[in-house]
Amino acid sequence: MNDSTEKASEGDASSKALSAHAGDVGVGDGVLPEAFRAWLRENQVNEEVYRSAHLERRFIRVSVHDSSISLEQLEAAYGKPCTPVDWCAGFYQIPTCARVAASSLYKEGRVYGADVSSGVAVDALQIQPGDHCLDMCCAPGTKLCMISEMAGANGSATGVDISRDRLASCRTVVQKYKRPNIRLFLADATQFAQRAPVPKEESTAQEAVQVAEEGVNDEQGPTHAKRAKRGKPDRRLCKKDRKHARDGMFFVSDALYASFRHLDTLAEATTTTPGAVRQCAEPLYDRVLVDAECTHDGSIKHIAKYDKWGWETFEKRFFDPERISTLQTLQRNLIQRGFDLLKPGGRLVYSTCSFARRQNEDIVSWFLSQNQKAELVPAVDIAVPASCPSDEALTHCLKFDPVVSGTSGLFVAAFAKHS
Fold this sequence. Notes:
Elements: H1 8-22, H2 34-42, E1 58-62, H3 71-78, E2 83-84, E3 91-94, H4 104-107, E4 111-113, H5 116-123, E5 132-135, H6 142-151, E6 156-161, H7 164-176, E7 182-186, E8 198-199, H8 205-217, H9 222-229, H10 239-244, E9 251-252, H11 254-259, E10 260-261, H12 266-269, E11 285-291, H13 300-304, H14 306-309, H15 311-318, H16 321-340, E12 342-352, H17 361-370, E13 374-377, E14 398-400, H18 402-405, E15 410-417
Helix pairs in contact: 8-9
């Protein structure tokens, strides 16, 4: 949720709004609502985080496979100094005044604009070449492209999002970076049941018949299933979306479509019955990222928007008990469904751009209490500039913020799944 390039102009405007109150150092004394300040104390969040926008650095990521970009090229594009981040491969800190989207390197799809904390969330998956990975809340798409790179030509990255507009933006990012092993699904991730791609040589006619039969019996009816099987466009999508959709997928890269069979279409993989979830057929996924929807209070730029919207609007939205409860339920359902789709021996990462215990530590504790096969493990194998929860049982989790890390706020927890 810290992918920055798609939101660069909006972030710049937010930073200017903050400056009106406190020069160049974020939100000043008396600007944050007292209810929010009390919430920060309750969640053991240093209030200085919101007065430290000047500490939040800017980063870019160079494709790990593109060794042709030199440091001199980066500095020519973004100014000096461009400093490699030694704790997250491919990332560089760049001058805060640099305009990422204006450079030819960015326009050509050779660098990403992304916060380095997002890179840590992807690194925490420990992706190996050939892994089939699932990103359950994939928009705007920068992390999905990173996952795709690490999985390599023999692996894949499956992205899911419930919003058509967000997923369309994600498709644009995927196409810009010419990733050959990505497929996208417009779906509710809490009920997603699409299997990982199956290499063509491993699929069988019997599987195809079985899936076809399941499609005919699906509550959404046989028409969509048969239409997808014949490769005809789904008329429920707009014309632009139908151009890219294939076999129930919102988008799939040509190379991935040619190399793998996608036997379960979306209509066959889900159900319209509230609360009911169809079990996913094997193979399951090697890695799952759950970058969950949250209150975004870890994004200083997001909080800055309320200078324009009004702090009364902030308090109404942020402290709405029904909204918070709904978010927490969604987060529980997302992490549980992600774990259901993860194969034994696999690895799941849960992240939010929130500082809230209810959305972070409480979700992790609940999840561990519900899943005996889940183990909380160290997110990364090297030292990173991040803090960890005070609860000794959760010290493997990482918490990034502008004061400690020089980054946007992000919570990261990694889990292994045992047999």
